[in-house]
Amino acid sequence: MKLRYIFILYCFIFGLLCSVLAKPLSIEKIVFSSNRDGNWEIYIMNPDGTRQERLTYDRAVDCDPVISPKGDQILFNSNRAGTRDLYLMDVDGRNVRPLFGFSEAYRTHPVWSPDGVRIAYSQRALNGINIHTAKADGTSVKHIVHLKNAHSGYPSWSSDGTEIAFVVADEIHWASRQIRFINLETRTQETLFPDDFPRMSQPAYSPLENRIAFVWFRPAEQQQSVFIVNRDGSYLRQIESLVANDPAWAPFGNELIYTEGVIGSNSQIFKINLSRQTATQLTDDGSNYAGNWFAPKQLPVSPSTSLLTTQWGTVKIRN
């Protein structure tokens, strides 16, 4: 136990001293987790699937990676100190350090605020799993969502920074999964499709528009698919018709990446162009799970006219 604390303290101090030297990304990148080398580690690649590079080298499970809005750091989940918790590292994989220092908390599913000042995450406690926020340095922790008879997880920050989408589990019955929104100023909550009994999870806010991508399992069809819907619940459309997970938006809202099981293989990462309705497989080695897609802020951030006028429908990816 003493050696573990010494290790954490060393990583924390070394990270503080060296983080100022981190050079931010100047090109688009996708970060993801993979077990291709026999252990779950963090990797990074180009949006077309090229230049897949390993960033972490640890016997622990490293997963849930997300690149900061500035492109200089990666926040991820690891159990390298015993308990699952959140860690930071530079985008080149150096200067790994625990975000909260000495901690026995169980934290998962991290996400950055749009300005990179704060993070949101899930934290396990005696009464369940709930949503918290903190500054990017691990200070000023706030308990955002507290549910007495349910769990909350998978936070996703809105593009304007005013609210967080998250999943409420087991509130209606043991298998229920609903997507809910919380206003960070008023703390009022609103449920997407409140009159339904859905099994919806993994919400992902569009970086540009008031839209949500999410995973929906429908028992009647025995199918789990990726859907997109407007924030107000209108214009629901199915994007992926097979067993898909972990949707994440391209920086300009015109593409999605997601994870899907491949026959004769493992879970792989795909990219779908929402205008052309075509999908491309990006990984093929081991099992892989999508993280997030980063682009430097100096690139254009307004959606194209063709994207705004695209007619949506069900997409059949492969025969």
Strand portion, in percent?
35-45%
Number of helices: 2
CATH top level label of the domain at 206-319: Mainly Beta
CATH A-level architecture of the domain at 206-319: 6 Propeller
What integer is the average pLDDT? 84
**In the CATH hierarchy, what is the superfamily of the domain at 206-319?**
TolB, C-terminal domain
Distance between the termini: 54 Å
Gyration radius, in Å: 19 Å
What would the principal axes of the Cα set say about the shape?
A: globular
Instruction: Give the helix/strand class.
Output: mainly beta
Main β-sheet, spatial strand arrangement: 3-2-1-24
Number of strands: 24
| Low confidence ranges | 1-19, 298-319
Q: Which fold name corresponds to the CATH topology of the domain at 206-319?
A: Neuraminidase
Instruction: Tell me about the largest β-sheet.
Output: 4 strands, antiparallel
**Helix coverage percent:** under 10%
The ordered string of helix (H) and strand (E) elements is HEEEEEEEEEEEEEEEEEEEEEEEEH
Task: Give the topology, please.
Blueprint: H1 2-18, E1 29-34, E2 41-45, E3 53-54, E4 62-67, E5 73-78, E6 85-90, E7 97-98, E8 106-112, E9 118-125, E10 128-135, E11 142-145, E12 151-157, E13 163-169, E14 177-183, E15 189-191, E16 199-205, E17 211-218, E18 223-230, E19 237-240, E20 244-249, E21 255-261, E22 267-273, E23 278-281, E24 288-294, H2 305-308
Antiparallel strand pairs: 1-2, 1-24, 2-3, 4-5, 5-6, 6-7, 8-9, 9-10, 10-11, 12-13, 13-14, 14-15, 16-17, 17-18, 18-19, 20-21, 21-22, 22-23
Keywords, separated by commas or semicolons:
disordered C terminus; four-stranded antiparallel sheet; disordered N terminus; 319 residues; 2 helices; Neuraminidase; mainly beta
